[in-house]
Amino acid sequence: MNSADAHHMPSDSFGLVKLLPFKTKGHAWAQHCIWYGECGNSTILPEKKYNCNYTGPPQPLPKEGQDLLKELCPGLAYGSQSVCCDTQQLNTLKGNIQLPLQYLSRCPACFFNFMTLFCELTCSPYQSLFLNATEFSPDPAHNSTNVVKLSYYINQTFADAMYEACMDVQAPSSNVKALGLLCGRDSSTCTPTNWIQYMFNTDNGQVPFAIDPVFSGTPTNETFGCTESLDDGSGPCSCQDCSQACGPAPAPPPLPPPWTLLGLDAMNVIMAFSYAGFLVVFVGALLGAWCYRKRTITSEYGPIQDSNQPLSLNNESIKSCSDLLGERFESALRELFSRWGSFCARRPLLVILVSVVLVTACSTGLAYMRVTTDPVDLWSAPGSRARQEKDYFDQHFGPFFRTEQLIITTPWTNWTSFEPTSGPPIPFSPILTLDLLFQVLDLQTAIEDLEADYNGEKVTLEDICMSPLAPYNNNCTILSVLNYFQNSREVLNHTFGDEFYTYFDYHTHFLYCVSSPVALDDTGHFHDPCMGTFGGPVFPWLVLGGYEGTAYSNATALVITFPVNNYLKDTDKLGKARAWEKEFVEFLKNYSNPNITVAFNSERSIEDEIDRESNSDISTIVVSYAIMFIYVSVALGRIYSFPRILVDSKISLGIAGILIVLSSVACSLGIFSYAGIPLTLIVIEVIPFLVLAVGVDNIFIIVQTFQRDERMQHEELHQQIGRILGDVAPGMFLSSLSETVAFFLGAMSNMPAVRTFSLFAGLAVLIDFLLQISCFVSLLGLDVQRQERNRLDILCCVKLSDASEEKTDGVLFYFFKKMYAPFVLKDWVRPLVAVFVGMLSFSVAVVDKVDVGLDQQLSMPDDSYVLDYFGNLSAYLHTGPPVYFVVEDGYDYRTSDGQNRVCGGVGCNNDSLVQQIYTASLMNNVYTTPSSWLDDYFDWVKPQSSCCRYYNATGTFCNASVVDDSCVHCRPMTPDGKRRPNGTDFTRFLPMFLSDNPNIKCGKGGHAAYSAAVQLKDNGTAVGATHFMSYHTILNTSADSISAMKMARQLAHNISLSMGLANRTYHVFPYSVFYVFYEQYLTIAHDTALNLGVSLAAIFVVSTVLLGFELWSAALVSLTIAMILVNMFGVMWLWSISLNAVSLVNLVMSCGISVEFCSHIVRGFSVSTKATRVERAQEALSHMGSSVFSGITLTKFGGILILALSKSQIFQVFYFRMYLAIVLLGALHGLVFLPVLLSYAGPSVNQAKVKAAQRRLVGTEREHLLNQ
């Protein structure tokens, strides 16, 4: 046997040399060897050999041996090169160091110290000074004696230096430290002493004879620290592999301190003082005005008609150019709508027929309707950065896999304890008891065996799963703790021990695998692998949950993930995946086990649950709209007496009005469907509510104005309807055009949901207005004729006897005119409007505190199984989704400079791509160091390694496990050959690396880990796009996801700059599956301000024009709407409503509905001819307030309350709460604040309009109205 066998690597992909003594001057024995050559087979490990006992002097090596000695142990290659090992021992040594070389050689100092110890042990001519053979056995076959037991005297200082040089070395493909793969335990608990003791322990299944390490003595061999260069010119280790080279540990930038004043939130303080200042100024102004009126007899509030009062501001001589322009514009609108209304009343059938034809033509476009259900299309614009990056990733690396995941917990509370052969007992949580693991394995196996039907074809998991090593290994990727046991009951049940101890069982295998997840051999009695059956590692942080730090045995949850292939355009394969997922969900819904609790989610779960939620809420929506429809139908009529209830009711007219509203929605959908613009669920759910608010309000205004009007003498019905439409249509036009322009401008938004809603809503509101001033006016004329002929509503063929009824004001109109308006505008009540300023101040103070984002839980029904999954996801998981740092096609990896800007090993730049991601992991910005294909490729291609070989005759790749003399190393054992490959060498061997499967001889094969990470082009002769994968930290909230995306983008930007890509057409970008959904939140504050600001500006401009160029009136409308919007943010903060695309759509809609609440009141004030501002405000509130209140507030209120019964959390939060707030705030501001504001600061009366009104009424029986 030779010394190399004594230190044989474990037969796994991350095996190591097990024996590492170090010579000391602890003994005075004569200088001699203790062994030389190989003898008999070991009784502990028969496949290994003992070394032959030999106490003679060192022996010279032949030429072949001298070459090996120079390659492996250059420190011993001096003088006559007489050593205590032969060529065979050196060959065995070379074979045994392959795996440590692949992982430790990333840090030259670490590997130098490692090899120094190994070489001194195996071949040192001074063995007797530090190695004492204590037990022997005969070897008759070789007529010699075997060394079967020995003591190693290892200097503690050297052991510490060796450990310190190696403790930070990374294993890029596994995202863990290499020492964790070589120490038999997690790297955080590995020490110099237990590392060596573990390697020397015969229980590890690799040491062929007993070794007793003794730590003492003074060092005689040179060591190198990881920050030092070696004598052969090798540079210091990189920061990634040597924390000492990094300087001080990076600290995350401190969070910006909260903005405070006087120790309190600054915005709260500022708004509190602002409000206090307002109150002082407001009260002072009121007192000053009161005192002024007491001293002055005449004021602006004098009668408008009394032009002889010298101080009256209403003097008829004061007519500005804008007054005249406004009056003429107003008169033109009045005349236009009067003529149009008269025509519609005269030709009702023609107008109705044309309207029906046009509505039918437009609505036919619904046949081409497409509804967008893909969340990506719904939330991410095609031109957005996240969408473009997603498309790039999908095109070059394939779409992100579909995820089927289980989180398993148990109600059991009994913990167990495992007692290892050394060290304290290790607690194991209940979920890791053997009995429960068997039950979980049965569940996992049942899922693997599920079969689905797709178009008559059987679909199994194997048909759709990810198999990274296919076709060599077709096993499905299953990320499960049971894959440590090869998903086998037999392996899980492996036990080896005696009456005193259990040396190996599932506990020991679990503990080994969580520290060395890529091991192909746990070095135990059964040599069970840790690598999953699919050929890849199973990282503990992906399959365990509910533990602290690295105490994996304390995990309280198991996570099982089945990655399934995703497809961009192959609908057949995607259909198969979805069919199997459906079977998966149904199976788990029906699964029951009292010992385990399963929370689960499928890729299709969220979409399915949203569909189910939408279907379950149809009844709620139908009831909501039915209540509004019934109210409108009943409330439109004015009942004068019970006998005439069926004559005076307007149920048919109300139904017709509602059908017109729905027709406008159908026309909008149809027109855009013709244009190929798809709908969204938000459009379908929100627009009917919006158009119903606008349309019903206008219906009430038209009908109630007619009901309060008296037909003048010699005036026919069509003339009366035309006159009424001339009065009210300009206000309807004002509100509808304001909303339409505001919505169309809102379509400039980058958010698809907002843009689509704005387009459909703007057109629907416009069409609704056009139908109301045409079709509805004609229907009103017909209904009035029916009523005047005493025919029953609906049953118009039935006629009652003629009877005259005296018209009286409606109850609501009477209430507003006689009670509400006078009360609100009393001198002592009006100052209470300051409360609204307080509300505004509060809302401004909290507007920046509204949360941004949309938690996934809110999108699910209350009874959804996915809610349990989301809860467990936050409670148990330790990592977030993978994040890929993509280097776009165009970067040159063939030059040393290009490589140094990317890699993370020796000689790489301190600000390289890998190094910057590693630094980010130290600051907890990402969870793990990156998987670097480039660094692993450099380790794989080294000439010292047996990984990179090819057949000399054909040049094709020769795997490390192949024994064939015709296989030669890719690179020569020369100084140039030991350097990184450049130029054509780089691309020549890279395809071999990406096709190499990991094995016990070479754990660095890149097929499983990197075949999808590197895109080869030009027949494998050039490198295209590549990616470097890490993981985000756990992301529990929307804020976490937004912050993680911002961090990753900033990191990628810094990497691009350090790689010199600032002015290139290619760069580095981060990609994670959730970015397309959360990118909108990076700019949603800006988008919200822009959308609402543009809408307000549009409303101001349209109001200015349609109010007769009265800038001040338009300003008051815009101010009130702005207050409503700001107060909406206050409500959102109080009611925990986050800002996202859904709430932004509602805010844009609230802007439109607010126009309805405000514009009619302001226009009523503007055209009023009353004497004072107070009287003008009272008249506007009396006439318009009742219609607005009945048309919007009461109509919506009943329907909104029904939404509270919805099972959908989105409906409860974003529709019930926000709709209720919109209606209540709109009503309060439109019917309380705005009239009071107009009474204080409304525009002065337009003299030209007053004279025009006088001219219209003089000589008619309505002339008396001028003086009322």
From TrEMBL:
One of its GO terms (biological process) is intestinal cholesterol absorption. The keyword Flavoprotein does not apply. GO terms for cellular component: endomembrane system; plasma membrane. InterPro entries: HMGCR/SNAP/NPC1-like_SSD, NPC1-like, NPC1_MLD, NPC1_N, SSD. Residues 617-782 form the SSD domain. The chain crosses the membrane at residues 272-292, 349-369, 622-641, 653-675, 681-703, 724-745, 757-782, 828-847, 1089-1109, 1116-1135, 1141-1162, 1183-1206, 1218-1241. It is a multi-pass membrane protein. It is found in: Endomembrane system. GO terms for molecular function: cholesterol binding; lipid transporter activity. It catalyses: cholesterol(in) = cholesterol(out). The keyword Signal applies. Keywords: Cholesterol metabolism, Disulfide bond, Glycoprotein, Lipid metabolism, Lipid transport, Membrane, Signal, Steroid metabolism, Sterol metabolism, Transmembrane, Transmembrane helix, Transport. Belongs to the patched family. This is SSD domain-containing protein. It comes from Electrophorus electricus (Electric eel).
